[in-house]
C-alpha cells in the first residue's frame, strides 16, 4: 500500500478518462485523490448521448462491438446491468445506386452488385500478381496493391476523401492499416464468409447497446467514479500544465469560462487532443514540438438530426454512403439501436457530415443544412417522411487526419511528452488514433496495470503497451 496519498488529475470525461478513473479507484492499494476535468457539461465525449422528443440519440452511429475484450465487457455489464442490450445489426451501404447489406453478405452481394463490378473485382484478382510490390507510400498505394482499382475507386477512395478531406494519395499508408480491417479481396471474402449458413458464430452480426444510448456507459461510469470518492468538474477546461525540473506539479483550469484554479497533481492522464496537451505545456511558439503539434490536424463533424412524424423511418439501423455525391457519410435512426417502442408517433435520424472548422458545412445554419441533407436523401432514394424539423450538433476533433509524413511529427510530440514525468497521454485523441470505445478502454485498463502497489509508475511497461495500442484496427 502506498503510504503517501497520490494525486491524480484526468483530463477528459470520455470513455477513456472515465474507465481509467473507475478502475484506478478500485485500486485501494494506491491511496489516491482523483479528479476529472471535463470541459463539457456532461460525460461521454464523442460517445455521449442526449434525449430529444423522448428519443435517445448519439453523436452519429455508435455501438459497442462484440469484439470488446471480456474483462472490459464485464466492467460495462457491471455498471449497466440489464440496460446493456444485445442487438442484431441491420445496416446497408449505398454503392452504384444500389443498397447492399452491411456488413457485406456473400449472397446479397452476388444478388445486388452490378455484374460489371463483380467482373472488375475478378479481373483485379487475376491481375494482382502483376501489381507493384514496392513498399506502399500512401493509403492509395497500399489499398491498390491489396484490393485493386475496382473496390478502391468505387468505395475506399471516395470514402477517404469524404471522411478525412484529403485525396487517398495525400493520406499516409498507416491509415490503411488502422482503418481498413480487410485490405485484400481474400480478407473481404473471409469476413463475408462469417455470414454463410453454418459459419455463423454467436457474435456474427450482433452488437451491444445500452437502453439510454451509447452515452449511458459513460454516465454510469461517472456515477461510480463519484460514488468511489472521485471528483468530476464539468464545464471546466484545462488551460495549462506546470512542470518543475521535468516533473508534473499542477494543472491550471478555468471553471465555467471564468474562474481560474490550480490543482496540484502527481500524475496527469490526458485524454484530450495530444496537440492541445502540447500547447498546455507552453513549449514555446516556435519550438519544434509546437510546430509539430500545430501541423497535425483533426477532422470535425456536423450531425444533422431530422425529426419525423412517424413511428419508424426505415427498419435499417445505419445506412453508409461512401460515394462523394452524397454529403453525409452515414445516416442512423436512434430508435433502431435500442429498439425503443416509444414515442409511437416520432422518430429522429442523424446524418453525419465530416467537415473542417470554418468550411461551408461547419458554419451552415440549420435551414441551410436542412436543404443540403434533404436533397441528398432524395438522391439516395430515401426521402424524409412526415418531416417536422431539423436541428444540428457539432463536434470538433472527431477523426485524427493521417496526412503523409504525420508519423515523424507525432514522434517529435511523443518524445517531448516522454520527458515529462507524471504525464501520460491516452485515449482516441490523446493517442492521435482511430479507435473504438473498447480500444480506448483497454488503454485505460493497461494504464492502471502500470501502477505498482507502491504507487510507482512503470514507464517501460507503458511503452510496451503503447506498441499494442498501435496495432488496434477500427471496427465499423
Ligand atoms: C462518428 C463516430 C462514430 C463512432 N462510432 C463508434 C462505434 O460505433 N463504436 C465504437 O466503439 N466507437 C465508435 N467511435 C469511436 C468512439 O467515439 C471513441 O473511440 C471514443 O469516444 C473515444 O473516447 P475517449 O475518451 O478516448 O475520447 P473522447 O470521447 O473524445 O473524450 C475526450 C474528452 O475530453 C474533453 N476535453 C477536450 N479538451 C479538454 C480540455 N482542454 N479540458 C477538459 N476536457 C477536455 C472532451 O470534451 C471529451 O469529453 C465513433 C467515433 C465517431 C467520431
CATH class term of the largest domain: Alpha Beta
- What is the CATH fold-level name of the largest domain? FAD/NAD(P)-binding domain
Identify the overall geometry. Answer: globular
Named CATH architecture of the largest domain: 3-Layer(bba) Sandwich
Give the structural class: alpha/beta
Number of helices: 18
* CATH homologous superfamily (4th level) name of the largest domain: FAD/NAD(P)-binding domain
Mean pLDDT: 94
Low-confidence stretches: none
Number of domains: 3
Strand order of the largest sheet: 7-6-15-16-17-14-18
The largest pleated sheet is described as: 7 strands, mixed
How far from one another are the termini? Answer: 42 Å
Bound molecules: flavin-adenine dinucleotide
Topology:
Elements: E1 6-11, H1 15-26, E2 32-37, E3 49-52, E4 55-58, H2 70-80, E5 84-88, E6 91-95, E7 98-102, H3 106-112, H4 115-127, H5 139-147, H6 149-164, H7 173-179, H8 185-193, E8 206-210, H9 215-227, E9 231-233, E10 236-244, E11 247-255, E12 259-264, E13 267-270, H10 274-280, H11 288-295, E14 297-308, E15 318-320, E16 330-333, H12 335-338, E17 347-355, H13 360-363, H14 366-379, E18 387-401, H15 406-418, E19 423-425, H16 427-430, H17 437-449, H18 459-470
Parallel strand pairs: 1-2, 1-13, 2-9, 6-15, 13-19
Antiparallel strand pairs: 3-4, 5-8, 6-7, 10-11, 11-12, 14-17, 14-18, 15-16, 16-17
This protein binds flavin-adenine dinucleotide.
Amino acid at each position: 500500500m502506498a503510504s503517501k496519498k497520490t494525486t491524480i488529475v484526468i483530463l477528459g470525461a470520455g470513455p477513456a478518462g472515465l474507465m481509467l478513473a473507475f478502475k484506478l479507484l478500485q485500486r485501494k492499494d494506491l491511496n489516491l485523490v482523483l479528479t476529472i476535468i471535463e470541459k463539457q457539461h456532461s460525460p461521454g465525449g464523442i460517445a455521449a448521448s442526449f434525449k430529444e422528443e423522448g428519443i435517445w440519440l448519439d453523436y452519429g452511429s455508435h455501438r459497442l462491438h462484440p469484439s470488446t475484450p471480456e474483462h472490459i465487457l464485464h466492467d460495462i455489464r457491471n455498471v449497466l446491468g440489464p440496460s446493456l442490450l444485445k442487438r442484431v445489426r441491420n445496416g446497408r451501404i449505398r454503392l452504384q445506386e444500389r443498397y447492399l447489406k452491411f456488413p457485406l453478405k456473400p449472397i446479397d452481394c452476388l444478388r445486388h452488385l452490378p455484374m460489371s463490378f463483380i467482373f472488375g473485382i475478378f479481373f483485379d484478382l487475376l491481375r494482382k500478381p502483376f501489381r507493384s510490390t514496392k513498399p506502399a507510400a500512401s493509403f492509395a498505394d497500399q489499398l491498390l496493391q491489396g484490393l485493386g482499382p475496382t473496390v478502391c475507386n468505387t468505395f475506399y477512395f471516395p470514402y477517404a476523401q469524404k471522411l478525412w478531406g484529403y485525396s487517398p494519395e495525400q493520406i499516409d499508408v498507416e491509415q490503411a492499416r488502422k482503418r481498413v480491417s480487410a485490405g485484400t479481396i481474400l480478407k473481404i471474402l473471409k469476413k463475408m464468409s462469417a455470414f454463410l449458413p453454418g459459419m455463423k458464430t454467436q457474435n456474427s452480426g450482433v452488437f451491444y447497446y445500452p437502453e439510454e444510448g451509447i452515452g449511458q456507459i459513460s454516465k454510469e461510469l461517472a456515477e461510480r467514479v463519484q460514488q468511489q470518492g472521485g471528483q468530476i468538474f464539468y464545464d471546466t477546461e484545462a488551460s495549462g500544465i506546470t512542470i518543475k525540473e521535468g516533473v508534473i506539479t499542477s494543472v491550471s483550469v478555468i471553471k465555467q469560462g471564468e474562474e481560474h484554479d490550480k490543482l496540484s497533481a502527481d500524475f496527469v492522464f490526458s485524454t484530450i487532443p495530444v496537440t492541445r496537451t502540447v500547447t498546455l505545456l507552453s513549449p514555446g511558439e516556435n519550438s519544434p514540438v509546437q510546430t509539430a503539434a500545430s501541423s497535425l490536424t483533426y477532422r470535425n463533424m456536423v450531425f444533422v438530426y431530422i425529426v419525423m412524424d412517424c413511428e419508424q423511418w426505415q427498419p435499417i439501423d445505419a445506412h453508409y454512403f461512401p460515394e462523394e455525391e452524397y454529403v453525409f457519410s452515414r445516416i442512423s435512426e436512434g430508435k433502431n439501436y435500442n429498439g425503443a417502442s416509444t414515442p409511437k408517433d416520432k422518430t429522429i435520424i442523424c446524418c453525419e457530415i465530416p467537415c473542417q472548422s470554418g468550411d461551408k458545412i461547419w458554419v451552415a445554419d440549420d435551414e441551410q443544412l436542412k436543404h443540403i441533407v434533404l436533397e441528398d436523401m432524395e438522391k439516395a432514394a430515401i426521402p424524409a417522411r412526415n418531416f417536422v424539423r431539423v436541428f444540428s450538433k457539432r463536434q470538433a476533433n472527431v477523426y485524427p487526419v493521417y496526412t503523409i509524413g504525420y508519423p515523424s511529427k507525432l514522434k517529435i510530440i511523443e518524445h517531448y511528452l516522454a520527458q515529462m514525468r507524471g504525464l501520460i497521454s491516452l485515449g482516441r485523441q490523446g493517442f492521435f488514433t482511430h479507435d473504438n470505445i473498447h480500444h480506448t478502454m483497454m488503454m485505460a485498463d493497461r494504464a492502471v496495470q502500470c501502477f505498482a502497489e507502491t504507487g510507482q509508475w512503470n514507464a517501460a511497461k507503458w511503452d510496451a503497451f503503447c506498441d499494442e495500442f498501435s496495432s488496434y484496427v477500427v471496427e465499423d
